[in-house]
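User: Predict structure, ligand zinc ion.
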Amino acid sequence: PESLAELEGKHPGLRISFRSIHSAKGLEADHVVVMDLDAATGRLGFPASNPDEPILRLVQPEAEDFPFAEERRLFYVALTRAKQGVTLLADPDHPSAFVRELEADPACRELVSGEAADNLPPCVECGGAMVAKRRAGGIRFTCTHSPLCTNTSPSCPACGEGMPAHPAPDAISRRWTCSSCATAREGCPRCQAGWLVPRNSKHGEFVSCSRWIGPGKGCQYKRSVREA
Ligand SMILES: [Zn+2]
Ligand SMILES: [Zn+2]
Ligand SMILES: [Zn+2]
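Assistant: Predicted complex:
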């Protein structure tokens, strides 16, 4: 809450306020950020750890169809305050049961989950925030405006953690720079919206655009790398 004034100072066009869900009832905002959606550790989680605690039993009506009905209603209130979008902040290793339910719900395909980081560059297509998704093959970055924006990016081949960022419009170098290890990559000369990923095939080494998605999908630029 103390840093909100500082944030507003950096973004003069934004009006930011911090509230409990209870005090937000009946209000609306363009975008809502719900914080601390972590699995229960003692009483601090949301929903709180033990629904069978006697004190909670007293305040909860007997015939509730869903677990954590009271907190579920609060969570619904929080989600429905937003006119345009909602950001849920949760511990990636111990998210709230509500977050896990949303992630598992096929009707909720607009939910983009992943790890956010302060230093991740914005989406090159729409300016939205990018989040990291960890999979068996490594990290891939996805735009949080999916499915409206389909932009994704592979992670940096050097460190596997960062995302190469588009050079600033006024930068002298046209090279992309990794958000974690600062390794520079050549930009794609065809689409200007991707960077060149080193790859290997039986025909030898080559580079291809980071916006390659599959045969005929995404940017198809590639060039073989000759050994000197
Ligand atoms: Zn985007
Ligand atoms: Zn890197
Ligand atoms: Zn390209």
